[in-house]
TrEMBL record:
<feature type="domain" description="GHMP kinase N-terminal">
    <location>
        <begin position="129"/>
        <end position="205"/>
    </location>
</feature>
<dbReference type="GO" id="GO:0004335">
    <property type="term" value="F:galactokinase activity"/>
</dbReference>
<feature type="domain" description="Galactokinase N-terminal">
    <location>
        <begin position="21"/>
        <end position="70"/>
    </location>
</feature>
<dbReference type="InterPro" id="IPR006206">
    <property type="entry name" value="Mevalonate/galactokinase"/>
</dbReference>
<keyword id="KW-0547">Nucleotide-binding</keyword>
<keyword id="KW-0460">Magnesium</keyword>
<dbReference type="GO" id="GO:0046872">
    <property type="term" value="F:metal ion binding"/>
</dbReference>
<dbReference type="InterPro" id="IPR036554">
    <property type="entry name" value="GHMP_kinase_C_sf"/>
</dbReference>
<keyword id="KW-0299">Galactose metabolism</keyword>
<dbReference type="InterPro" id="IPR006204">
    <property type="entry name" value="GHMP_kinase_N_dom"/>
</dbReference>
<keyword id="KW-0808">Transferase</keyword>
<dbReference type="Pfam" id="PF00288">
    <property type="entry name" value="GHMP_kinases_N"/>
</dbReference>
<dbReference type="Pfam" id="PF10509">
    <property type="entry name" value="GalKase_gal_bdg"/>
</dbReference>
<dbReference type="InterPro" id="IPR020568">
    <property type="entry name" value="Ribosomal_Su5_D2-typ_SF"/>
</dbReference>
<dbReference type="InterPro" id="IPR000705">
    <property type="entry name" value="Galactokinase"/>
</dbReference>
<dbReference type="InterPro" id="IPR014721">
    <property type="entry name" value="Ribsml_uS5_D2-typ_fold_subgr"/>
</dbReference>
<keyword id="KW-0418">Kinase</keyword>
Length: 411
């Protein structure tokens, strides 16, 4: 057809075996094991994690694998199948801003795990002994599908497992997974220097196969929401625009600051505290149209997550389509974080028959999602490909998004 590029996730056993083989080639030794963690896509609840909101992400079948062997001399050696440069260093030299580059997402994890008070892994020898690790990722890097959290979380489960923490039952181990997520957030914020919320790590560590999670961003609690789209005849199509989100950093900070100022003006701790039924009265208290638009997004988006979760709990998957559309319009016009490419995916998907579509992730590039009839996946993707070609844009990449399991040991 039109050069449609579907990025299928490789089968876990063969991807794990590949990572082990790459470890042998890189280090000339056997790894102690192979662990993996998934990327994620957010179904709904965008740009509200930093204002006490709700989000509803699911884990992708696309995972990052780490083959790892512990050491005893405090040295860390990291290699990646996706990056030419590796890093060799000492754990003693890891800290805020150090090391720089992608190794921060690896070396920052034991540093942060050691600081989680009272967790069963905090004092483990493996956190100070160091390790050799080979990373092999199948989550596209920098596409808003959280390859960064997948990398951190794969390292975290590897180290926790080697420390003797039992993570085999995803339900029984949820509490300790929540502590690991805290450590991974800290590694990303403090060591890698990326000011992200906790959604990505919660999804990568705490999702179960066949479900999304309703994440309460006030306290980090999670409710598993069954998501059997296939049974409803539906599929979730992820579209990676492959457009860079280069100015997202400053814009992200401005949006956060705008909501913080609005909270102060309204005398509320976060946007979750604003009753959607009283939105007009709250808006009337705000100083300008831009702040009003930002607040309208946050308050209505949190409400849409509640509605989507309620519909999914009743098996009414089809009916979330309108909420996805409304979320996109809100992000596009009120929060102003969409882009030409994201709008093109959403508009084209809808006119090609998608039930609903929206940008997902931070915006300004990255990825979008479309809820489509299973039989229409290829035709909707084809229309999007044609629209991108007609605008002279780089061809997007498509990913199937079956809700998948959280981080675990593979070999
Ligand atoms: P996203 O999380 O949406 O993919 P980020 O910018 O948060 O985008 O994270 C991408 C960064 O994570 C990469 O630039 C790289 O530093 C690191 N990373 C992720 N996966 C890998 C990998 N397989 N090998 C090396 N580095 C990786
Ligand atoms: Mg990331």
């Amino acid at each position: 057809g039109h050069g449609l590029e579907f990025l299928e996730a490789p089968a876990r056993p063969s991807a794990a075996a590949d990572a082990a083989q790459r470890f042998r080639e890189a280090f000339g030794a056997e790894p102690a094991g192979v662990w993996s963690a998934p990327g994620r896509v957010n179904l709904i609840g965008e740009h509200v994690d930093y204002t006490g909101g709700l989000a509803l992400p699911l884990a992708l079948p696309h995972r990052t694998f780490v083959a790892l062997a512990p050491r005893t001399d405090g040295t860390v050696r990291v290699r990646s199948a996706q990056e030419a440069s590796g890093w060799d260093g000492s754990l003693a030299d890891v800290g805020p801003g150090r090391p720089d580059g992608w190794a921060a997402y690896v070396a920052g994890v034991p540093w942060a795990m050691a600081q989680v008070d009272g967790a069963p892994f905090s004092g483990a020898d493996v956190l100070s002994g160091g390790f050799d690790v080979l990373v092999d990722g199948h989550v596209p890097l920098g596409s808003g599908l959280s390859s960064s959290a997948a990398l951190e979380c794969a390292v975290a489960v590897a180290l926790a497992d080697l420390a003797g923490v039992d993570l085999r039952d995803p339900r029984a181990s949820d509490a300790v997974r929540a502590r690991l997520a805290e450590a991974c957030v800290r590694a990303e914020n403090d060591v890698a220097g990326a000011p992200t919320g906790g959604m990505d790590q919660a999804a990568s560590l705490r999702c179960h196969e066949g479900a999304g999670i309703l994440l309460d961003c006030r306290d980090g609690t999670v409710r598993h929401v069954p998501l059997d789209l296939a049974a409803a005849g539906l599929a979730l199509l992820v579209v990676d625009t492959r457009a860079s989100h280069s100015h997202s950093g400053g814009e992200y900070g401005q949006r956060r600051a705008s909501l913080e100022a609005a909270c102060a003006a309204l005398g509320v701790p976060d946007m979750r505290a604003v009753d959607p039924a009283g939105l007009d009265a709250a808006l009337a208290e705000l100083p300008d149209d831009v702040t009003r638009a930002r607040v309208r997004h946050a308050v209505t988006e949190i409400d849409r997550v509640r509605r989507a979760a309620a519909l999914l709990a009743e098996g009414r998957e089809r009916e979330i389509a309108g909420l996805l559309d409304a979320s996109h319009e809100s992000l596009r016009h009120d929060y102003e974080v969409s882009s030409v490419e994201l709008d093109l995916v959403v508009d084209t998907a809808r006119s090609a028959g998608a039930l609903g579509a929206r940008m997902t992730g931070g915006g300004f590039g990255g990825s979008a999602i479309a809820l489509v009839e299973i039989d229409a996946v290829r035709s909707v993707a084809a229309e999007i490909g044609i629209a991108f070609a007609a605008q002279g844009l780089r061809a997007p990449q498509f990913l199937p998004a079956l809700p998948s399991a959280g981080a675990a040991r593979d070999l």
